[in-house]
Amino acid sequence: MATTARTSTQSRMQSAVYYRRIRVINEILKYVLITTIAILFIFPFLWLLTTSFKSTTEIASIPPRLLPKVWQWKNYVKAVTYIPFFKYMWNTVVIFALKAVGAVISCSLAAYGFSVLKWPGRDAIFFLVLATMMLPFQVTMVPLYIIFTRLGWIGTFAPLVVPSWFGYAFSIFLFRQFFLTIPHELPEAARIDGCSEPRIYTQIILPLAKPAVASVVLFEFMWTWNDFLGPMLYLTRMEKWTLSLGLLQFRSQQGETVWEQLMAAATLTVFPAIVLYFIGQKAFIQGIATTGFK
To answer: Given this model, what pLDDT does residue 253 score?
Structure first.
C-alpha cells in the first residue's frame, strides 16, 4: 500500500511538472509571437526615423543601411525652415480643435436622442444614420464642393470644420453604444426629481461618458492629422495649408524629392499623434472596449 501511494504521488508530481513546463513553453511562444508582430509593425517607423538622420548618399546607397554612419541632426533644422512647418502645424491644430469640439457636441447630442430618449421611429432613423457610413467621401465630394463654392467657403477652414458640427455616423454610433451602458435608472430618477433633458445630458450622461469622449477626440485627431484629400480640395491658399499638404513642398519642380528632409518632417508630423495616444490611451481603450456592453 505504501509503495502504491508513493508511486501515485510521484506520478502526480511528474504530471504537475509536465503541465507546468507546457504552460511555460506556451507563455514563451506567446510572447515571442507578440514580439515578432510588434517588430513587424514598428519597423516602418524605425526606418522612417533612421532615414531622417541620413545623408542623401546614404539614403541612395545599395545595399541599404538601417543606421546612418554619421547622424545628420541638421536635417530637422532644414526641414522646419524649408517649409513654414510650424505654420502648417498650427493650421492643422486649429482645424482639429474646432472639429473635435463640434464632433463631441453634435454626436453626443444625437446619440443622447438615440439612446436615452424614447420616441417613435428612433431605431429606424438610427439605422438610416448608420447607412450613411456606406457612402465614401468620393461619392459626396463633387456635390459638397459645389455647395461650399456657392457659399464662398473655398479657401477657408469652413468646409473642413462645419460638417463635424452636424455629426458623424461613426461617432454617433460610438456615443450611443456607450450611453446604452449607463443604467437607465439614472436619467429616470433625474426626471422624477424635475431635472430637464439638457441638464440630464450635461450633468449626468456626458460626465459619465469621458472614455467615449476621449475616443472620439482621438479618432478626430487621427482623421484630421492624416487627411490629405479634404485640404487639397478646399485649401487653395498656401498660408492655409495643413501639414499633409506642406509635405508636398519637399518635392521640387524637377520631380526630385529631398528625402532626408521629407523623412525628418514626416517624423515630426507623426510625433504629436504618438504622444497624444500615450496620454489618452487608457481612456481610449476603455471607451472602445466597454462600448456596447450593458
So the answer is: 46
What whole-number distance in Å separates Cα of residue 109 and Cα of residue 127? 17
Predicted TM-score (pTM) above 0.70: yes
**In whole angstroms, what separates CA 221 from the centre of its chain?**
6
Cα–Cα dist 206/195, whole Å: 15
Find, among 234, 228, 106, the residue nearest to 170 by Cα.
106
> Which residue has 467621401 as its cell numbers?
137
Q: With pLDDT > 70 as the criterion, what percentage of the chain qualifies?
A: 87
Q: Quote the CA–CA distance of 242 and 26 in Å, as a whole number.
A: 48
Amino acid 208 reads L
Peptide bond between residue 272 and the one before it cis (omega within 30 degrees of 0): no
pLDDT, tens digit, for every residue of 226-254? 899 899 999 988 889 999 888 888 875 44
3-class state of residue 257 by DSSP: strand
Which residue matches cell numbers 487621427?
222
- Sign, Cα dihedral of 109, 111, 115, 120: positive
pLDDT at 287 over 80: no
With the CA atoms of 58, 63, 68 and 69 taken in that order, what torsion angle do they form, in degrees rounded to the nearest 10? -90
| φ, ψ dihedrals at 14, nearest 5° | -65, -40
Q: How many CB atoms lie within 10 A of CB 40?
A: 9
List, in sequence order, every residue forming a beta bridge with 251; answer none if it has no partner: 257
Phi, psi (deg, nearest 5) at residue 23: -65, -40
Per-residue model confidence as pLDDT tens digits over 86-123: 999 999 999 999 999 999 999 999 999 998 888 898 88
CA distances from 208 to 121, 171, 176, 194, 281 (A): 27, 16, 13, 20, 17
For residue 195 the three cell numbers come to 431635472
